[in-house]
Design brief:
heterodimer, A: alpha/beta, nine-stranded mixed sheet, five-stranded parallel sheet, B: 378 residues, six-stranded parallel sheet, elongated
Chain lengths: 378, 378
């Protein structure tokens, strides 16, 4: 049975400047998450698990690590002869070279890529969020409603609604109004930055948008309001699973800590919807005689001789005897020496935390980002 | 070692492992939390730059094909050179009916003829060691030997190595005799089953063994040729584990809890490569109590684990006790169950309050996929 032809375009060029030192060397989608993943593994694995085989990755900001992480897409089973995963950086042509100006512009610049695949639908994803979603359910909804565009939305707390793009819908879920970060939100349905468009409709609006020199060439700012104003059929599709935007150091830390909660809303251990990533081939973790490991996630290659509470440890972390870490996210290849006590921190890769360090308090509500040069408090 | 072909030949003697080898050869036994026994020699070959590897699988082929596949984890999925798998050939022809690896080697002579390499390394999988193959190969080349056999000098007061191959050499390391250790001497030369042979000598030895019918196994053929070919030896310094029976296997796993052995086996002369299972990090819950254990990814631990090797995706329930045990992939140990001095094969399910105990000298072995319940729960 032939499936509906859909191409996913994953926007992975963002800097994520509010993540500060975490994105000093890598694009936000390549930031490590959850013990062994990078953020981009979530949308990519969702796409692979949804049965999407054609996926373009739009890169721009510091793409080197991201490129080597993606390779030819083998980890997600996207290494195919036709279609599969393609990395799409900004390029040069007769009109000169230019950067992607906005999210919509990135798609506009790669219209040829999509045209060659000749899909009926285009799925726009971003590499900034942690969630598990079956995009095919969203596509089914899109087809069922006969929509030109469908936007995935999630209910957010009312007091946070003004931080998001908010959809107002009628009783059939048809979008009647869209407001980007409204001061007085009329609804609490926030856009997740996941869109399905009929390709011919989107194509026409991209061509129209590029004529407008005042446009910021952004989906949320320009394309969606324009399509709405011209009475296209646009529907909201409500998602009710776990979804987290890891925009700041604090939300990044919180999202990692969420994995340790008993309800495990992300369902990371659900084998029917696995998250895939590049495999490092490291030996199992070693927990010694003296070690205490409680309510934590620990990854292959770790050697634990000290005390680990409520923490997420990436691969090859060494916690020496007499060291204590509480509520920490420890990136790979870190060594915590004897005597160190670290609370509520995110520790960057390859750090050696010396034994005289006592950092952070368990209950002061701050998160500490520990880097080679400094400790950033948020 | 570009000029050297790798050959792995399984031992046919799996009877010492009982149900552990009911459906798999000893070479495919899960080992060390996330590996199979064969991964050690296969990774060693690849880490020492051997580019073509032939695997003679023996008769229990399914598990070999399932694990090795096209050789991707070892990067042997090449268009040129790479992995070659040789299932056994059966026919009424006289040469096919013979036992031993000589007949298999002879019947696949084309593989050896077609390769450009001038030397051959033949290894079996009943011995686990991280041999410095570069140094051994250098010795083989520099001494211009026809054959170099690798051995280690070992003390064995407890008779662990009875029925293993025993090597007699002169002061220059030249082969005098090769026999079977019966435990008459406490200290002796243990042959590791790994040997370098010049290809031209290899053809001569194999053909002669077939024609004269005086050797079924390569090691017998070498012994027959000790006067005619220049056969010397290379001494390996380091830990060696012979896997002949379930007890050896259990002890070898347990020895990984020694951090020196852990580092030698997993990190010296390159990493051990194996199939990735895409398991998330291991989750230690609030009630977990883990000491002196090696734990792979994807486990969820709520109970107590001590002196044990835990493979990928194992669940240990609340108040469950696991001690001195080897627990293979995807086993479930339910709440309040007790497992002591045992080997649980893959996918075993130990029900609530079930208690299983062997002794450390005779570990209790539970067959793959077994479900064990208390009578009252059935």
């Amino acid at each position: 049975m032939k499936k509906e032809k859909i191409v996913a375009m994953l926007l992975a060029g963002g800097q994520g400047s509010r993540l500060r030192a975490l994105t000093a060397n890598v694009a936000k989608p390549a930031v490590p998450f959850g013990g062994k993943y990078r953020i981009i593994d979530f949308p990519l694995s969702n796409a692979a698990n949804s049965g999407i085989v054609d996926i373009g990755i739009l890169t721009q900001y510091k793409p080197f690590l991201l490129n080597s992480h993606l390779g030819i897409g083998t980890a997600w089973d996207l290494d195919r002869d036709t279609g599969g995963l393609r990395v799409l950086p900004p390029y040069m042509n007769e009109a000169g070279g230019r950067w992607y100006k906005g999210t919509a512009n990135a798609i506009y610049e790669n219209m040829n890529f999509i045209d060659n695949l000749n899909p009926e639908y285009v799925l726009i994803l971003s590499g900034d969020h942690i969630y598990k979603m079956d995009y095919m359910k969203m596509l089914d909804h899109h087809i069922e409603k006969g929509a030109h565009a469908t936007i995935a939305v999630i209910e957010v707390p009312w007091d946070e609604a003004s931080r998001f793009g908010i959809m107002e819908t009628d009783k059939n879920g048809k979008i009647v109004e869209f407001a980007e970060k409204p001061e007085k939100p009329k609804s609490n349905l926030a856009s997740m930055g996941i869109y399905i468009f009929n390709w011919d409709a989107l194509r026409a609006y991209l061509l129209k948008d590029v004529q407008n020199i005042d446009s910021t060439n952004d989906f949320g700012h320009d394309i969606i309001p324009m399509m709405l104003a011209e009475h296209n059929k646009m529907y909201a599709w409500t998602f009710d699973g776990y979804w987290k935007d890891v925009g700041t150091i604090k939300s990044y830390w919180e999202a990692n800590m969420d994995l340790l909660k008993d309800d495990d809303r992300l369902q990371l251990y659900d084998r029917s919807w696995r998250i895939y990533t590049r495999n490092k081939n490291l030996p199992p973790q070693f927990i010694s005689h003296h070690a205490k490991v409680v309510n934590s996630m620990v990854t292959e290659g770790c050697i634990i001789d000290g005390e680990v509470n409520n923490s997420v440890l990436f691969s090859e972390v060494t916690v020496n005897k007499g060291a204590v870490i509480n509520n920490c996210v420890v990136l790979s290849n870190v060594v915590i020496e004897e005597g160190a006590v670290i609370n509520n921190a995110v520790i960057m890769e390859h750090m050696v935390v010396s034994g005289d360090k006592v950092i952070g308090l368990v209950d002061d509500g701050h998160v500490y980002l520990i880097t080679e040069d400094s400790i950033i408090i948020e | 070692m570009e000029n050297c072909l790798g050959v792995i030949s399984f031992s046919n003697n799996d009877y010492g492992f009982g149900v552990l080898c009911k459906n798999r050869p000893a070479a495919m036994l899960p080992f060390g939390g996330r590996y199979r026994v064969i991964d050690f020699i296969l990774s060693s070959m690849v880490n020492h730059d051997i580019q073509s590897v032939g695997v003679f699988t023996g008769t229990k082929i399914r598990s070999v094909m399932d694990h090795i596949g096209n050789g991707k984890p070892w990067e042997l999925n090449r268009r040129f050179k790479g992995l070659f798998i040789f299932p056994p050939l059966y026919d009424n022809d006289a040469t096919y009916r013979r036992l031993g690896n000589i007949a298999q080697f002879h019947n696949n002579e084309q593989f050896f003829r077609a390769s450009k390499e001038e030397n051959i390394m033949v290894a079996n999988t009943s011995v686990l060691a991280k041999v410095d193959l570069d140094a051994a190969y250098k010795h083989f080349i520099e001494t211009d030997a026809d054959v170099t056999m690798i051995y280690t000098r070992t003390k064995d007061p407890t008779g662990r190595y009875i029925n293993n191959d025993k090597l007699y050499i002169d002061d220059d390391g030249v082969l005098i005799n090769l026999g079977t250790n019966l435990g008459t001497e406490e200290e002796f030369n243990l042959y590791l089953g790994t040997v370098f042979i010049k290809k031209e000598i290899y053809f001569r030895i194999v053909r002669e063994a077939i024609e004269k019918g005086n050797a079924n196994y390569l090691k017998e053929a070498l012994l027959v040729n000790r006067g005619k070919a220049k056969i010397n030896t290379y001494r390996h310094e380091g830990h060696v584990f012979c896997l002949k029976n379930a007890k050896n296997y259990y002890d070898a796993n347990m020895s990984l809890l020694n951090s020196d052995i852990y580092k030698e086996l997993f990190y010296s002369h390159g990493p051990i490569l194996t199939n990735s299972k895409d398991e998330p990090s291991t989750n230690y819950k609030e009630t977990a109590k883990v000491n002196n254990s090696l734990i792979a990814n994807g486990c969820i631990i709520e109970g107590s684990v001590k002196n044990s090797i835990i493979f990928r995706g194992v669940k240990v329930g609340k108040n469950a006790i696991v001690k001195n045990a080897v627990i293979m992939q995807k086993c479930i140990i339910a709440d309040n169950a007790v497992v002591v001095n045992a080997i649980l094969d893959k996918n075993t399910n130990i029900g609530k309050r079930v208690e299983i105990a062997g002794s450390s000298t005779v570990p209790y072995v539970i067959e793959k996929d077994y479900i064990i319940r208390q009578e009252s729960e059935i």
